[in-house]
Amino acid sequence: MPTARRGIQSVGIGFRVLAALAAEPAAATLGAVATRAGLSASQAHRYLASLVAAGMAAQNAASGRYELGPQAIQIGLAALARTDIFAEADPAIAAFTRETGRTTLVAARGPLGPTIVRWHPGSIPVITSLAVGSVLPLLRSATGHAFLGFMSEEEIAAALAQDNARDRRKAGIDIAAIRSRVRKAMAASVDEMLIPGLRATAVPILDIQNRAALVVTAIATSAFPRNEDAAIVRRLQAVCRNLTERLGAPWR
């Protein structure tokens, strides 16, 4: 095998080892990295030694376990800094809207609460007062529920105080149940809760801190059969999962 080709193959295997290391939830043993990378322990050890020397991996002197090194972390942070989540999400959500016909909105957390920042009209018009710039209620919208599922306790307390000042119709709402349901299903749905005649399903796009950077919500009127909703949710989850992973975050 020519030297150049052999070198390229070695780089490819090195990246496999690095990807295996990144996929581990915590510092990993040599055996775990080797198994995930599809290599023998001796092969993985040689590549890990080179990665440690380059600062791409690090080995704990006490436990012998491996984790990402400072150089790998710097590269990852640089990639994240250059990622525009709005630019990444827009074409993906527009394609989802074209394929499904569902009106789709994208929301971010603004100073007043979940705020619509993008609106993609579907094949059947949705008559509503909602528009770009509208603030959605935290506890009475699918979008709000999706954000709620990935907020810290401190953030929830502050957001609820603000939400309560605008919307008093919250009697009997179990916040803990909402959060548990959203985190388990990776989606939130409401049926005519906010606007009569409309049902909505929201899916988060997570950041590396496991918070919802954006929430994407598909809206349906009675013109769309309910028996199609489950398939629509799965498609939306696939889109949001892909965007989450492009942000360098785990989906669950």
Features:
252 residues; alpha+beta; Arc Repressor Mutant, subunit A; Beta-Lactamase; 2 domains; 5-stranded antiparallel sheet; elongated
Describe this structure in words.
Helix 2 packs across helix 3 (41-53) and helix 5 (85-100) runs antiparallel to helix 9 (229-246). The longest helix is centred in the first third of the chain and has 21 residues, at 3-23. Strand 5 and strand 6 form a beta hairpin. The two termini are 42 Å apart. It contains 9 helices and 7 strands, in the order H-H-H-E-E-H-H-E-E-H-H-H-E-E-E-H. Strands 4-3-7-6-5 form a 5-stranded antiparallel β-sheet, sandwiched between helices. A two-stranded antiparallel sheet has the order 1-2. The chain is elongated. It is α+β, with helices and mostly antiparallel strands. 48% of the residues lie in helices and 17% in strands. The protein folds into 2 domains: 3-81, Arc Repressor Mutant, subunit A, CATH 1.10.10; 85-246, 2-Layer Sandwich (Beta-Lactamase), CATH 3.30.450. The protein has helices spanning 3-23, 30-37, 41-53, 70-81, 85-100, 142-148, 153-166, 175-185, 229-246; strands spanning 57-59, 66-68, 103-110, 113-120, 188-191, 199-206, 212-220.
